[in-house]
Amino acid sequence: MRAPRSLLWLLVLLALEVGAGEKAKAKAASSSSSSSSSSSPVPVPSSAGAEGDPGGPGCPVCLWRQHSKELRLESIKSQILSKLRLKEAPNITREVVNQLLPKAPPLQQILDLHDFQGDAFPHDADFLEEEEDEYHATTETVISMAQETDPVVQIEGNPHCCFFNFSPKIMFTKVVKAQLWVYLRPVQHTSTVYLQILRLKPVTEDGSRHIRIRSLKIDLNSRIGHWQSIDFKHVLQNWFKQPQNNWGIEINAFDPNGNDLAVTSLGPGAEGLHPFMELRVLENNKRSRRNLGLDCDEHSTESRCCRYPLTVDFEAFGWDWIIAPKRYKANYCSGQCEYMFMQKYPHTHLVQQANPRGSAGPCCTPTKMSPINMLYFNDKQQIIYGKIPGMVVDRCGCS
């Protein structure tokens, strides 16, 4: 009785697999003996013992998890630059940060009141609104440092201060709050200080350039210096409507003896005490929906798609231009997605059936992400405080 043709083919395939297995064993034995006799040992990748497994090769899931973590870190670096519309990381060292960072209350309040983790920010209906752009960062607070004025507004080189430059993106947002911050030098005795803000314009033949826009009377008794804030919202709104009128301002704060107590020098000795503008602007964001998934730790033996903890350290990147957070919990996804787990994704299943050879199957990817808030220097050495969407993995799933 002749065996069916399908059975014969099965026997042939089994014989070929046995032969291939024997050849592989012989080759492995030969490779092992030659490497042991060599004077230079074969280096073991650092990721081989990752996730607490010293065996490395005995934990393929651990190796895959380490690979997923490394890819996630590289992705975070490129995403941050892309979402902030930066071609490369700003060339700002720690020394430059210490020199430019204002020693002022609003900045310290930002650092104290926010922990910069996306989940810590309110998610109520008043705070979150739908928007079309779900990728790029949204700005909440801008701190613009004083710059030198244009020579066309100066007479004999004065005044040096102050010009504030704003990007077109900021000029098209809604200004919720605008404060001009000026540092006043310490006084030994209680004094009445007259602070005035003058709007500058190009010098004409008669030399007129001063237009007083604000005047304050301040009783000063600080022996350690004093930061004074001035409401600047109305002036700023006019600048944004007519940017050609923004030539800068002159700041004076005279005591009864005629001494100017306002620090407006941009030279040495005034680091961190320069005038600056604090803006609160309104940009929309979009509410994200919940999606359940597995949570695992680094010692888990789970092979299915799961969310794992990952802390990103910006100092390890050498990114001193990011003021805060210095690190944050980003998390990452790793694990297998079997077809049997995908019964709730009928569309994916139909695609795989239609093209089984061309489809790699479902992948373990983030299904819910949340933003982080960041305080950073941009490439113009301005301090920006804003929200970067999609930087924290909240849930992982197969899709």
From TrEMBL:
The gene is GDF11. This is Growth differentiation factor 11. Residues 1-21 form the signal peptide. Its main location: secreted. It holds the Pfam family TGFb_propeptide. PANTHER family: GROWTH_DIFFERENTIATION FACTOR 11, TGF-BETA FAMILY. The lineage of its organism: Eukaryota, Metazoa, Chordata, Craniata, Vertebrata. Residues 287-399 form the TGF-beta family profile domain. Belongs to the TGF-beta family. Residues 26-51 have a biased composition (Low complexity). InterPro entries: Cystine-knot_cytokine, TGF-b_C, TGF-b_propeptide, TGF-beta-rel, TGFb_CS. PROSITE patterns: TGF_BETA_1, TGF_BETA_2. One of its GO terms (molecular function) is growth factor activity. One of its GO terms (cellular component) is protein-containing complex. Keywords: Cleavage on pair of basic residues, Cytokine, Disulfide bond, Growth factor, Secreted, Signal.
